[in-house]
């Protein structure tokens, strides 16, 4: 056998391997289906029930109107989302583009929630059109934020992250005020595939077939997007119209799926990337293989959940389960991704304008904080309109929540400052790097698994969760030198995992879900005097504990070589600072939940005001963080009086607006 023939055989085997993998996955799905059907009369009875219901046979009725439609829906939804993911990744030249990472899914879901509450008549015209409008608006915002950077992959993903968080905060507001009305939508929105007939499958199938035909029609011009823009334009391609057409098609496919089954996480991200990593090269082959893989992945996951249902303590929607499985996949993909040189520009966090008298500036901020506390404590709306209140029975209710809000702002601001200086990344914060999400997951686990956990147990659990997130961040990115873009993408994955866990918890119907929901939204309503005193003491103690690290924080942004030359033991310094970040984040998350953006916003504002040195930035950021959270708590009480918007959501909307502004300036 000649070397050329050996190489040819190997190449042929490599081309066949992905398709053999699809066949094996299909056989696995078939095996799971047979196991599931064993308790419902067997495969033969199920096959007969597919075409007709046997009179008087309940099992046949269930198979015909529930089991088969559910399997069909899983195949259709998975295939449609995977096809949308391939189109997005091809158009944006971004392996992380997907309906869930670019805000399309969350935008469509918010539109459906809003229409259900405010304009239910729109749903009669067609749920897919409402979802299409919401998804298109979210995607349009992402594109607008990333356009100046020519749709650089990381900027697109960051824009998608902030749009997801922003839209998620708005959806959480609707859910808090209309929980009973949206209870069914909450389960559906987490990706529930349960069916009661063939109507939804009949609705979705022609739309996906039309989408596939349209994608095949765009195949030739889409191939040209693998070239650079200049080469594609020279061949007569209108890039603007092509991108609009392909992205519009992807949004239509996503909206069609979401309007029927809700948000199904990560299929649109996982299937195209797995196909590419398996060696499928041509665009036509990737479209076909990814569509088949997405269909099989979702159907297999759903069959696994059905089989494990009797042993699960609560209902787990299939969409949330796929997101929980997809987050580790994204973590695995991150070291293998090539993002090019399109990362956002970063600068050492210590650089910037320097105030000539930082102590005087800090004094001014402290005075502003005192004024804000007094105003938030005494002034607001009441039964007689706006009034200045000094009655103790009102103040004793407001004072603990304001103290807790201020203390949590201090904790998050300090954590953000430490992270930004440690990583030399001005976009680092506990919220964006997934540390708050990791802490929140551990806290939820403690609430559900421990009998009546106390504050000490919750702080310990939250700290362990934050440390676990930090371990994942460092473990995945240590070989790349903790590059900012890789850290941020790892945070995206951890945040996605937290979102999946949250969806499972809220969709399960557990009575503790209401308390979890209030806590996740960052409400200070339930804070009592003891809790406020404890978190205030922790904020003071941990704030003082950060000051001795000021020298390290001044030197670390200069780089590893300079830091070692100046006598810093890098491993010891990084470990100490990461432990402190974990404790700061856990204590803050316990009070105001994982949403806020204060950890991003406060250090930025401190640097812009002129706190250039680490010690000054720590003090300035702490004061600004407290001020932001006090204002957020006060605004939350006034905007929709007598209803309240939780302080965490208000802070996340303020911080998200800043992040949007920041992205526009990249």
Automatic annotation (TrEMBL):
It is a multi-pass membrane protein. GO terms for cellular component: plasma membrane. Coiled coil: none annotated. GO terms for molecular function: transmembrane transporter activity. One of its GO terms (biological process) is siderophore-iron import into cell. The chain crosses the membrane at residues 67-88, 100-123, 129-147, 154-177, 244-271, 283-305, 311-334, 361-382, 402-420, 432-450, 456-476, 488-509, 529-550, 577-602, 644-661. Keywords: Cell membrane, Membrane, Transmembrane, Transmembrane helix, Transport. Pfam families: FecCD. It is found in: Cell membrane. The keyword Mitochondrion does not apply. PANTHER family: FE(3+) DICITRATE TRANSPORT SYSTEM PERMEASE PROTEIN FECD-RELATED (PTHR30472:SF37), FERRIC ENTEROBACTIN TRANSPORT SYSTEM PERMEASE PROTEIN (PTHR30472). Belongs to the binding-protein-dependent transport system permease family. FecCD subfamily. This is Fe3+-hydroxamate ABC transporter permease FhuB. It comes from Bisbaumannia pacifica.
């Amino acid at each position: 056998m000649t070397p050329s023939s050996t190489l040819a055989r190997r190449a042929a085997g490599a081309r066949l391997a992905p398709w053999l993998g699809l066949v094996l996955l299909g056989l696995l799905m078939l095996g799971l289906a047979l196991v599931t059907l064993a308790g419902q009369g067997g495969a033969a009875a199920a096959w007969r029930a597919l075409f007709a219901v046997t009179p008087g046979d309940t099992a046949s009725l269930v198979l015909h109107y529930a089991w088969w439609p559910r399997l069909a829906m899983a195949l259709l939804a998975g295939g449609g989302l995977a096809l949308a993911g391939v189109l997005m990744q091809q158009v944006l030249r971004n392996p992380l583009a997907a309906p869930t990472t670019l805000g399309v899914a969350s935008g469509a879901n918010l539109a459906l929630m809003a229409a259900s509450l405010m304009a239910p008549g729109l749903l009669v015209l067609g749920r897919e059109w409402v979802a299409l409008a919401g998804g298109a608006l979210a995607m349009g915002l992402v594109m607008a934020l990333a356009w100046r950077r020519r749709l650089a992959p990381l900027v697109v993903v960051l824009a998608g992250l902030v749009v997801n968080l922003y839209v998620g905060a708005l959806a959480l507001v609707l859910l808090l005020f209309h929980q009973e009305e949206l209870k069914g939508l909450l389960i559906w929105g987490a990706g529930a595939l349960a069916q009661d007939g063939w109507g939804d499958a009949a609705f979705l199938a022609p739309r996906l077939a039309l989408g596939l035909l349209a994608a095949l029609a765009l195949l030739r011009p889409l191939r040209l997007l693998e070239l650079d823009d200049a080469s594609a334009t020279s061949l007569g391609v209108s890039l603007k119209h092509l991108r609009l057409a392909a992205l519009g098609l992807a949004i239509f496919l996503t909206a069609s799926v979401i309007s029927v089954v809700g948000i199904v996480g990560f299929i649109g991200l996982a299937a195209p990337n797995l196909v590419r990593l398996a060696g499928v090269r041509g665009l036509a082959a990737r479209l076909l293989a990814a569509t088949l893989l997405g269909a099989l992945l979702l159907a297999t996951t759903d069959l696994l959940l059905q089989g494990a249902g009797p042993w699960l303590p609560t209902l787990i929607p299939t969409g949330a389960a796929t997101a929980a499985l997809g987050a580790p996949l994204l973590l695995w993909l991150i070291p293998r991704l090539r993002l090019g040189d399109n990362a956002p520009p970063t600068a050492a966090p210590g650089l910037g304008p320097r105030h000539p008298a930082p102590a005087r500036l800090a004094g001014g901020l402290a005075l502003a904080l005192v004024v804000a506390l007094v105003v938030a404590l005494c002034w607001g709306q009441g039964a007689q309109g706006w009034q200045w209140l000094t009655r103790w029975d009102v103040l004793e209710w407001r004072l603990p929540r304001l103290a807790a809000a201020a203390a949590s702002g201090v904790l998050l601001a300090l954590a953000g400052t430490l992270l930004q200086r440690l990583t030399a990344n001005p976009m680092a914060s506990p919220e964006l790097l997934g540390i708050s999400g990791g802490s929140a997951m551990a806290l939820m686990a403690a609430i559900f698994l421990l009998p009546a956990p106390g504050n000490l147990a919750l702080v310990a659990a939250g700290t362990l969760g934050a440390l676990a997130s930090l371990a994942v961040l460092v473990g995945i990115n240590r070989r790349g030198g903790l590059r900012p873009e890789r850290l941020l993408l790892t945070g995206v994955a951890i945040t996605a995992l937290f979102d999946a866990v949250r969806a499972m918890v809220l969709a399960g119907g557990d009575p503790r879900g209401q308390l979890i929901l209030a806590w996740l939204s960052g409400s200070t309503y339930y804070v009592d005097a003891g809790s406020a005193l404890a978190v205030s003491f922790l904020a003071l103690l941990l704030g003082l504990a950060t000051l001795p690290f000021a020298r390290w924080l001044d030197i670390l942004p200069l780089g590893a070589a300079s830091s070692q030359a100046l006598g810093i033991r890098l491993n010891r310094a990084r470990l100490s600072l990461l432990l402190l970040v974990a404790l700061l984040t856990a204590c803050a998350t316990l009070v105001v939940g994982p949403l806020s953006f204060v950890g991003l916003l406060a250090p930025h504002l401190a640097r812009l005001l002129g706190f250039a040195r680490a010690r000054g930035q720590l003090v300035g950021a702490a004061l600004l963080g407290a001020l932001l959270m006090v204002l957020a708590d006060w605004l939350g009480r006034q905007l929709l009086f007598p209803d309240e918007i939780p302080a965490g959501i208000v802070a996340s909307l303020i911080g998200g607006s800043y992040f949007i502004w920041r992205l526009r300036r990249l």
